[in-house]
Write a structure and sequence with these properties.
Largest sheet: 8 strands, mixed
Order of helices and strands: EHHHEHEHEHHEHHHHHHHEHEHE
Number of strands: 8
Helix content: 25-40%
GO molecular function, one term: rRNA (cytosine-N4-)-methyltransferase activity
Pfam family, one: Methyltransf_5
Bound molecules: S-adenosylmethionine, zinc ion
Family: Belongs to the methyltransferase superfamily. RsmH family.
Radius of gyration: 21 Å
Shape: globular
CATH superfamily: Vaccinia Virus protein VP39
Low-confidence stretches: 1-53
Keywords: Methyltransferase, S-adenosyl-L-methionine, Transferase
Number of domains: 1
GO cellular component, one term: cytoplasm
CATH topology: Rossmann fold
Length: 366
């Protein structure tokens, strides 16, 4: 266990408030069938390679950093939950900006937590690192109540997806840039690998998953090819996609980009995780508290946007001309209409910021 790290991921599956109700998507159904969670040794902790990988430099440039700081600059003193701690780039900037706030950082990835714990050491007891998934936000508040010591939660921040070190670590199988076993788990200690998922998924489910991630015309052909070839490595997955898409129809970039993203989202149950962290955030935030979410693909951004809209209207769809007669009550206001995107300066400095979209809401009702 890392220095100063508290392992608290042993929760049973308690659902959060469920303010936004949505029927399960096919992605969720697909992943839940593949989610007979098997506990296996984590390759990241293998004694021969583990130490070297844990100490490798964690190079992740925080995206929209000044915009994130601006979002939380005026919150009341209290706790900010960083639901996606990563290497603690945003968390350390928040702690440096305000000495009257403390950060509870969550990450499911042991390598990220190791890097974050080191980076946050100078902040002493103002930073707390916990292990697990952010869908368990509400439970973390309970288990960390002693450290929280009655302080209010004045912010929840989520910088979704994977970090640069996760993508760059070839052995984790997130990227088509290097050949590696098809793993894709953010937490290598639990769940099934992408290769195992492919071995158990039905054609219909895989096709729907690919469609949800932008593969429309060739989703069926790609799904069939993947199931026929049963790729076990990243390069075998690229080949399985390549042979299903005619040269003339290939977009810019790698032909398998969307398939990689779709599988990663399924393996890590990212759709359900996002739904639950959004609901959890509304539940734990104090009035005046800020929720800020950075998304990197349109599916995540749409979910966040719709969620904030729902909170801001209380679900009211009454015609404007009549005024609200349904009694809906808003719990949040949305800060600024559209999404916040990277400045031209950041775009040149950090290509990863290209697809980032941040949405911010403020809790108005408890
Ligand atoms: C984009 S990175 C965050 C980088 C961070 N903001 C920084 O400045 O270093 C996303 C992080 O969130 C973690 N993560 C993604 N989904 C998660 C989930 N459902 N629960 C917990 N951690 C998650 C990943 O392991 C990764 O370390
Ligand atoms: Zn209404």
């Amino acid at each position: 266990m890392n220095r100063g790290e508290v392992l608290t991921n042993q929760f049973t599956n308690v659902s959060s408030a469920g303010i936004l109700r949505r029927s399960p998507t096919s992605t969720q159904r697909a992943t839940s069938s593949a989610r007979s969670l098997v506990f296996r040794p984590d390759p990241l902790w293998d004694e021969s390679v583990g130490e070297q990988r844990m100490t490798r430099a964690f190079n992740h440039v925080p995206v929209l950093e000044s915009e994130v700081l601006a979002a939380f600059r005026t919150v009341a003193p209290g706790i900010i939950i960083d639901a996606t701690l990563g290497g603690a780039g945003h968390a350390s900037a928040l702690l440096a900006m305000r000495d009257d706030i403390a950060v509870l950082g969550i990450d499911r990835d042991p390598i990220a937590r190791h890097a974050a714990t080191e980076r946050l050491a100078p902040f002493g007891n103002r930073a707390r690192v916990v292990a697990g998934t952010f869908s368990k936000l509400v439970e973390f508040l309970r288990s960390e109540s002693q450290w929280i010591a009655g302080r209010e939660v004045v912010g929840v921040f989520a910088d979704l997806g994977v970090s640069s070190p996760q993508l760059d670590d070839e052995a984790r199988g997130f990227s088509f840039r290097a050949d590696a076993p098809l793993d894709m788990r953010m937490d290598g200690t639990t769940g099934i690998t992408a290769a195992e998922y492919i071995a158990s998924v039905e054609l219909d489910e895989l096709r729907t998953l690919l469609r949800e991630h932008g593969e429309d015309k060739f989703a069926h052909a790609i799904a069939k090819s993947i199931l026929a070839r049963q790729p076990k490595t990243t390069s075998e997955l690229v080949t399985a996609v390549e042979v299903a898409v005619p040269m003339a129809a290939r977009r810019r970039g790698n032909v398998a980009t969307r398939a990689f993203q779709a599988l990663r989202v399924a393996i890590n149950e990212e759709v359900r995780e996002l739904d639950e962290v959004l609901n959890g955030a509304v539940e734990v935030l104090a009035v005046g508290g800020v929720l800020a979410v950075i998304s990197y693909h349109s599916g995540e951004d749409r979910v966040t946007k719709e969620f904030l809209k729902y909170q801001a209207t209380g679900g009211c769809t009454c015609p404007v001309i009549l005024g609200c007669v349904c009694g809906a009550v808003a719990t949040m206001t949305v800060r600024r209409g559209g999404a916040i995107v990277a400045s031209a300066e950041e775009l040149t400095r950090n290509p990863r910021s290209r697809s980032a979209r941040m949405r911010v809401g403020v809790k108005v009702l408890s």
